[in-house]
Design a protein that fits this description.
elongated, five-stranded mixed beta sheet, alpha+beta
C-alpha cells in the first residue's frame, strides 16, 4: 500500500477506558413523535422536551452537577416520508430550563435546518416534498476538565537500550530478536527493526526495514527506513 509512517499512540490499548474517564458526563435521550413539519404540535413537543429535561436534570444532579453546569442541545429527528432513517440536528442550545425559543417559527427554522443537513448528508433535497418530524431529542452535558496534551521541542534521537532477546517469528522463521521495555523509553528514543517493544498493555512489532521513534508526546511513530 506504500505506507511509510504509522502512528501508534502509547495509550491505544486503553482508549476505551481513557475515553470513559475524560468524556463529559452526558445524558442523551429521545422520544418518538410523528408530525408534519408544516403543522407541528408545539405543546406536545414542549411536554416531551420538558420530560427529557427533567430526567437529565435528575441524573446529572445525582452525579453531583448543578443545573448551571449543564448545557442542553435541543434536537429534532426528521426525514422525508418513506425514508428508513431520520437525520438529527440541533434546533437550539442553552440550559435545561430555557424553552423560550420554542414558538410558532419552529417549523420554518426546522425545515431550513433539515434541508441543510440533508444536503450535507446526501447532496440534495426533495424540492416538492416536505419532511416530517419523527422524534425529539435532548443532549445534556456537564463539562469536566480534560487532561492536557503534552507538547515539547523535537527531542534528540538516541538508540534504545535492548532489555533481552527471545525467539520471535516475524515471517521468516524463528530468530533471536531484541526485546525493548516500552516503559523505559523516553522521547527521542528509537528502536530499529527487527525488534519487539513490550509495553504494559500491548506488544509492538518493529519489522525489518522499519524503526520505531518515540515522539515528543511519548507516542510511537513507525517509519519505513
Amino acid at each position: 500500500m506504500g505506507i511509510a509512517r504509522v502512528l501508534i499512540p502509547r495509550a491505544s490499548p486503553t482508549f476505551s477506558a481513557l475515553g470513559t474517564l475524560v468524556a463529559d458526563p452526558t445524558v442523551d435521550e429521545e422520544r418518538s413523535l410523528i408530525a408534519p413539519v408544516e403543522d407541528l404540535p408545539l405543546e406536545r413537543l414542549r411536554a416531551l422536551w420538558e420530560e427529557l429535561a427533567a430526567r437529565a436534570r435528575e441524573s446529572l444532579q445525582a452525579a453531583g452537577f448543578a443545573e448551571d453546569e449543564v448545557t442542553a442541545s435541543w434536537q429534532l429527528n426528521m426525514r422525508y416520508p418513506g425514508q428508513n432513517f431520520a437525520l438529527t440536528f440541533d434546533v437550539a442550545h442553552g440550559t435545561l430550563s430555557d424553552l423560550a425559543w420554542l414558538d410558532g417559527n419552529l417549523g420554518q427554522s426546522a425545515l431550513a435546518l433539515f434541508n441543510a443537513r440533508h444536503t450535507e448528508e446526501y447532496g440534495h433535497i426533495r424540492e416538492h416534498e416536505l419532511p416530517e418530524v419523527t422524534g425529539v431529542r435532548l443532549v445534556s452535558r456537564a463539562a469536566t476538565p480534560s487532561p492536557p496534551v503534552r507538547e515539547g521541542a523535537a527531542p534528540s534521537p538516541r538508540a534504545a537500550m535492548i532489555a533481552s532477546t527471545r525467539p520471535v517469528q516475524l515471517g521468516e522463521g524463528y530468530d533471536e530478536t531484541p526485546i525493548v521495555a516500552g516503559a523505559a523509553l523516553k522521547p527521542g528514543d528509537y528502536v530499529a527493526g527487527p525488534a519487539v517493544i513490550a509495553e504494559t498493555f500491548t506488544t509492538i512489532v518493529v519489522p525489518t526495514g522499519w524503526r520505531a521513534e518515540v515522539d515528543a508526546a511519548g507516542d510511537y511513530m513507525l517509519v519505513r527506513c
